[in-house]
Amino acid sequence: MKIKVLAILGLATILSAGACSSATNTNTVVTNTNTMTNTNMTMSTPMSTPMATPMATKDVPAETTVKAALDKAGIKGVTVEATTAAVTLRGTVAKGKMGEAVRIATDAGQRRVDNQLTEMK
Q1: Angle at Cα 27 formed by Cα 25 and Cα 29, nearest 5°?
Q2: Which of 3, 31, 68, 115 is most buried (CB neighbours < 10 A)?
């Protein structure tokens, strides 16, 4: 029985392969008749090197101003470090005073504030 099935499958395979090879190719070749030339020239774009960002330098006057404003508001336990780019606040403040400390530092320092404060529980 297995031999008969294999023989039939083999014969079917041979017949189908023969049928595929005898078919005529009806594909036609299309020739591009476009005679226009591209007037846009491809030019290499020069690589731009990123501008070096100047290092932020320590800003002692801003540091003093922010520290004085925090002391005036009664916010103690805060270390202030100011650079030309940002004011960094570190330390621990009383519960509910963190937002006020950041607002005061932003107003007094006139620059971005890096808030690294923790609130007492």
Answers
A1: 130
A2: 115
Q: With beta carbons less than 8 A apart as the criterion, state whether 93 and 75 touch.
A: yes
Q: Which residue segments constitute the domains of the chain, with CATH numbers given?
A: 60-119 (3.30.1340)
From the number of C-beta atoms within 10 Å of its C-beta (0-12, 13-18, 19+), residue 28 rates as exposed
Mean pLDDT, 10 residues at a time, the chain of 121 residues:
75 68 60 63 62 75 94 93 93 92 92 92 79
> What order do you get walking across the sheet with 86-93 strand by strand?
78-82, 86-93, 112-119
